[in-house]
Design brief:
The structure holds 2 protein chains of 2 kinds.
Chain A (H helix, E strand, L loop, with lengths): L1 E6 L3 H10 L5 E7 L3 H11 L4 E2 L2 H8 L3 E4 L6 H10 L3 E4 L7 H14 L3 E3 L7 H11 L9 E7 L5 H9 L11 H6 L1 H10 L5 E8 L2 H5 L8 E8 L4 E7 L7 E6 L4 E5 L4 E5 L8 H26 L7 H16 L7 H22 L12
Parallel strand pairs in A: 1-2, 1-4, 2-3, 4-5, 5-6, 7-10
Antiparallel strand pairs in A: 7-11, 8-9, 9-10, 11-12, 12-13
Chain B lengths: L9 H4 L9 E5 L6 H10 L4 E6 L9 H6 L5 E5 L5 H8 L2 E6 L8 H19 L7 E5 L15 E2 L15 H20 L3 E6 L1 E3 L11 E2 L5 E3 L8 E3 H13 L7 E4 L7 H11 L5 E3 L2 H17 L10 H8 L3 E2 L2 H7 L7 H16 L3
Classes of the chains: A alpha/beta, B alpha/beta.
């Protein structure tokens, strides 16, 4: 029986608790939040016996095997370190830490103490991402990826989110070194990091404030990002974050030397782009029907998964939690290798560093003509 | 604003516990109801209305109304009740607090944070204020349980608050009930003079959505679920006046007031008028027993599937929203001296005109 503790009882904690409760042979032994009312509501709703307002009390009293850290990112490093020191394995919500140096220290700490660490990049474990990973491992691309393209967008017309963030000048997201981007882009960058051939990467990043935010006076917030990443094996990746693209894309394309793949995380569809040509006009007649067949098959697969009760909105986090716990119990490889966590952190460091450099003297805003 | 023959006339004012010169705090002052509360206070002649807003630097929908009165009567304080410092500034020297700010998010955490934690912070500041004469807590009629009330039975202030709110899967209502609990706890511990106001469904210009008590379009087509139920409505200006009076009338400490207008329309009638005045659309009537059974199946599936479909449709919610009850505003009329000034017909026409304008129909 794995004993689990939760530190941070905000919105994200709900996702963790509801999915942990679906994992066999584990028990949530305590929850903790600096704000006792928040710890109280989580404990009451999920029937968790012990609640704390101090992390040390939770660690001392409950001695959890695993702690899920679901606080704002500013506190991840300190809390993660305390948990590791107390002998717990840790699942840290994304973004892992504020800097890659903190990430390295934590992983170093975990390795020395024989503890395990993972990060909440759960979109990498949604059904479509797992299907894509399996095909790539089976060699569908015909070699290493040549090019990747990751779109991770956010829709600011979602009034609730926009109100919470834009209306609250002291929101913790605003205080992150990378601002809004830091809280969101690790999902998209993490996918790229997984398939890069090595860690020796060159990053070119440009960030700017959208016209939309400029119009409403939010000139200090960068909500548009374009990144190019190149490793020493010439694998290239483009990453786009945008609050203005409609529809808000969550797509990941991996283009190989033989075949390619497009994963749409919004619709949970995986489209194969096989190297196949037909003669003459057939090349324009047949492929659209083959595409239609693939989309139809994706629809059927999704319905099948739903009917088999495998299509939960939070199936990514559920899979990741289960895989992480299995890794702890059986000492098997981690679902997210440390190499990927560190590479994602380093790429993000570099992105924010370049944005800061490029935006010095421009009132935080990168003029569009400089792109 | 049709508040001309005010309850706050000379004779009415004598019954008030605060004079127009005293400072009144309104939280959530730029919101749908809060902005009308501010306008009503000004129309009553209050000269020091402190408006706490989280985002805006003006009072949104009633900015023009406010301008009609002396701008000097309004003090804008921008801040977040999650900050104890903001609470301290907002509560300093006030005689009456109208606490309308609330979390309306979809998540439990968001609702608890923005309804309960904020209320606790405000109460912490309020109990230190020597001049405070009343804390008016705005709750909701959704917190009641009608489990033990038969179809068509009366729902009033004596009914029990739902103790199984978690089963309803309604973060907003959960937050509101917890907010009430914390107000009651402070009242007991610190002898806080309080009144709780539980408005029914507040409607009017500024909010276009048809209340779920009439039906839902969650599944594409509009399912008419209200049937011949009376819809518990209160027009925004009427509601605002009830709230204002709850903060001013003497001798009502510790009371709870539900706010319903007169002549509540049946759901069927509401929908017919909506279609006639706003736009025509297909609605599918679902009888209550059939909908209750569907909610039962949904609830069971949700449990079996461990939440693949969240339990948003369940028997408790079904009962609260669509079982059908009678409602009374007798207590508010008698103890507050409240009289819904805008008649239901007039209120509905005003609402339909707004929706027509917003949606660009007709």
């Amino acid at each position: 029986m794995i004993r689990v503790g939760i530190i941070g009882c905000g919105k994200v904690a709900d996702k963790h608790v509801s999915q942990i409760l679906r994992v066999r042979d584990c028990e949530i032994v305590g929850v903790c939040d600096q704000e006792e009312l928040m710890a109280g509501q989580l404990a009451e709703r999920f029937g968790i016996r012990q609640r704390f307002s101090d992390a040390q009390d939770l660690l001392r009293t409950c001695r959890p095997d695993v702690v899920h850290i679901t606080t704002p990112p500013q506190s991840h490093y300190k809390l993660a370190k305390e948990c590791l020191d107390a002998g717990s394995h840790i699942y840290v919500e994304k973004p892992f830490t504020l800097t890659s140096q903190e990430a390295e220290e934590l992983i170093d700490n975990a390795l020395k103490g024989g503890r395990k660490v993972t990060v909440g990049n759960e979109t990498q474990f949604m059904p479509v991402a797992r299907d894509m990973r399996r095909l790539i491992q089976e060699g569908y691309l015909g070699g290493a990826p040549v090019l990747m393209e990751s779109f991770y967008c956010y829709d600011f017309s979602d009034e609730r989110y926009a109100k919470a963030l834009l209306g609250d000048k002291s929101h913790w997201i605003r205080r992150l070194p990378g601002g809004l981007l830091q809280n969101i882009i690790s999902h998209g960058i993490g996918k790229i990091a997984e398939y890069l051939q090595d860690e020796n990467v060159t990053v070119l990043a440009r960030g700017f404030t959208s016209r939309f935010l400029e119009r409403i006076g939010e000139t200090g917030m960068i909500d548009e990002l374009r990144v190019m990443i190149l490793d020493s094996h010439q694998t290239t990746a483009y990453f786009t974050f945008s609050s203005q693209i409609s529809p808000a894309l969550h797509q990941f394309r991996v283009l190989g030397p033989k075949n390619s793949l497009i994963a749409d995380h919004e619709h949970q569809t995986l489209i194969r782009l096989p190297k196949q040509t037909y003669r003459s006009y057939l090349n324009q007649f047949v492929p659209p029907f083959e595409d239609a067949k693939q989309h139809f098959a994706n629809g059927c697969r999704n319905i099948g998964r739903f009917l088999r009760n495998e299509f939960h909105a939070e199936s990514g986090i559920h899979f990741l939690i289960r895989a992480f716990y299995q890794s702890i119990i059986r000492d098997t490889p981690l679902p997210i290798p440390y190499r990927d966590i560190l590479l994602t952190s380093r790429i993000m460091d570099e992105i924010f560093s370049q944005i800061r450099r490029n935006n010095i003297g421009s009132g935080n805003t990168m003029p569009s003509h400089m792109m | 604003m049709p508040i001309s023959d005010l309850a706050a006339g000379e004779s009415g004012r004598k019954e008030f516990l605060a004079t127009p010169e005293e400072t009144i705090l309104v939280t959530g002052a730029s919101g749908f109801v809060g902005s009308r509360v501010v306008a009503t206070l000004l129309s009553y002649g209050f000269k020091r209305v402190r408006c706490l807003t989280r985002t805006a630097t003006n009072l949104g929908p009633t900015e023009n109304t406010v301008k009609e009165f002396s701008r000097n009567s309004v003090e804008l304080v921008q801040g977040n009740l999650l900050s104890p410092e903001t609470c301290k500034i907002a509560a300093e020297g006030v005689s009456v607090i109208y606490h309308l700010a609330a979390g309306v998010e979809k998540s439990y955490a968001g609702c608890v944070l923005n309804s309960v934690v904020t209320t606790r912070n405000l109460l912490d500041a309020a109990i230190k204020e020597k001049r405070l004469k009343r804390f008016v807590n705005i709750s909701s009629i959704a917190v009641y349980s009608n489990e033990n009330i038969p179809r068509g039975g009366l729902l009033d202030e004596s009914c029990e608050v739902d103790t199984k709110l978690i089963e309803r899967h309604e973060p907003y209502t959960y937050g509101k009930a917890k907010q009430d609990e914390i107000v009651l706890a402070y009242a007991k511990k610190y002898d806080l003079p309080y009144v709780i106001v539980r408005p029914s469904v507040v409607f009017g210009p500024g909010k276009a959505k048809i209340t779920d008590r009439v039906g839902t379009d969650t599944f594409g087509a509009f399912l008419h679920l209200g049937g011949s139920n009376r819809i518990p409505l209160t027009y925004v200006d009427n509601c605002a006046e009830a709230i204002v009076l709850a903060g001013l009338r003497k001798g009502i400490e510790g009371q709870v007031f539900n706010v319903f207008d007169d002549d509540l329309p049946k759901s069927r009638e509401f929908l017919r008028q909506y279609k006639s005045h706003v736009r025509r659309f297909l609605s599918i009537p679902i009888p209550y027993p059939a909908w209750f059974f569907l909610c039962y199946l949904w609830e069971k599936y949700s449990k079996w599937s461990e939440g693949q479909l969240p339990p948003v449709f369940n028997r408790r919610t079904c009962s609260v929203y669509w079982k059908g009850n009678r409602y009374s505003n007798r207590k508010a009329r008698e103890l507050l001296g409240w009289n819904p000034r805008v008649r239901m017909n007039e209120a509905l026409l005003s609402y339909f005109a707004y929706v027509r304008e917003v949606k660009g129909h007709k």
